[in-house]
Amino acid sequence: MDDLQKYLDPSFKEHMSLTETAKLNLVLLEEDRIRSAVDSLQTVKDLIQYLDSEHIRAVPSLCPKLYEVSQTQLKLQENAAELTTETRQLIANYDNLIMSLSKQFILWDSMLTEIEKGKIKKKKIPSS
């Protein structure tokens, strides 16, 4: 319990803090990242005029128009989904029709073949 209280004591962190050399080494290790963050912040500072522009401030007045456009887009999506479903159904019907016609043509072809075989056999038989 004594160890637990020692670790939970807020002053424990102060006793366990890094030496000045270790702190300096940490800052030097992170120097590139710190410089990158500074450069990024400078870029934001330079571009803040564009973020505060009149066009950006006018965005709330565009919300109703944006809502209307999004509703139109949703309706178009629904229409496209319905059209896709109808198109797939038409293609399936077309495939079924072509399959039926193909089967019918095959049947007629076999019937004609049988008829032609019968006529050929009859012609080859000599009549006496």
Keywords:
mainly alpha, elongated, 6 helices, 0% strand, 128 residues
Detailed description of the structure:
The protein is an all-alpha fold. The chain has six helices and no strands. The protein starts with a helix and ends with a helix. This is Dynactin subunit 3. It comes from Larinioides sclopetarius. InterPro entries: DCTN3.
Annotate the secondary structure layout.
Layout: H1 2-8, H2 10-15, H3 20-29, H4 31-51, H5 54-57, H6 59-124
Q: How many strand segments? A: 0
Global structural class: mainly alpha
Distance between the termini: 128 Å
Poorly predicted parts: none
> In DSSP terms, counting alpha (H) and pi (I) runs of 4 or more, how many helices?
6
Order of helices and strands: HHHHHH
Summarize model confidence as the mean pLDDT. Answer: 84
Amount of helix: over 70%
Estimated share of beta-strand residues: under 5%
Biggest β-sheet: count, sense, barrel?
none
Cα gyration radius (Å): 42 Å
Shape: elongated
Protein name: Dynactin subunit 3
Organism: Larinioides sclopetarius
Pfam families: Dynactin_p22 (PF07426)
